[in-house]
Design goal:
This protein is mostly beta strands and 130 residues long. It contains 1 helix and 11 strands; from the N terminus they run E-E-E-H-E-E-E-E-E-E-E-E. A 4-stranded antiparallel sheet has the order 1-2-3-4, with no helix packed on it. A 4-stranded antiparallel sheet has the order 5-6-7-8, with no helix packed on it. Strands 9-10-11 form a 3-stranded antiparallel sheet, with no helix packed on it. The longest helix is centred in the N-terminal third of the chain and has 5 residues, at 25-29. It is globular, with a radius of gyration of 15 Å. The two termini are 22 Å apart. The model has no long low-confidence stretch (mean pLDDT 89).
């Protein structure tokens, strides 16, 4: 799971490789309704390929790049998905052919990159690659 600081976007990765993205979650939470029907329907960002999602990370907007990005880590690759801004909503882009096991990926909030830990090394992956 990954959640933006503003609670606007929630991403959920599943064992079959599917990634769901909830948009505008903050509006549903703060609308005052206690009903679960007010939660928006998720968008399927990535269809299940059989390669399990082992990590998710959200890159928050910066002064240089005001867009939100979602990093998707599987056993065999790292993908990035542009959540907001011009060009958002497309297919996740392949960032690197190095994935990791469950629990071996985390966001570096200072550098805005995802860190992937493998037996041989630590890899830093940004939206443009490793």
């Amino acid at each position: 799971m990954a959640l933006t600081l503003s609670l606007s976007y929630l991403a959920i990765g599943l064992a079959d490789g599917t990634v769901l993205l909830y948009r505008h979650l903050d509006q549903s939470i703060f609308s005052g309704s206690s009903s679960l029907t007010s939660i928006p329907k998720p968008r399927v960002i990535l269809e299940g390929s059989g390669d399990p999602v082992t990590g998710l990370g959200i890159r928050e907007p910066t002064a240089d790049n005001p867009n939100v990005y979602l990093f998707i880590v599987t056993l065999n690759q790292v993908l990035s998905y542009q959540v907001t801004g011009k060009g958002s909503g497309g297919t996740p882009a392949n960032v690197d052919e190095v994935g990791c096991a469950l629990g071996c990926a985390t966001m570096d909030q200072a550098l805005k990159d995802i860190v992937v830990a493998r037996d041989e090394a630590l890899y830093m992956c940004g939206i443009d690659g490793r």
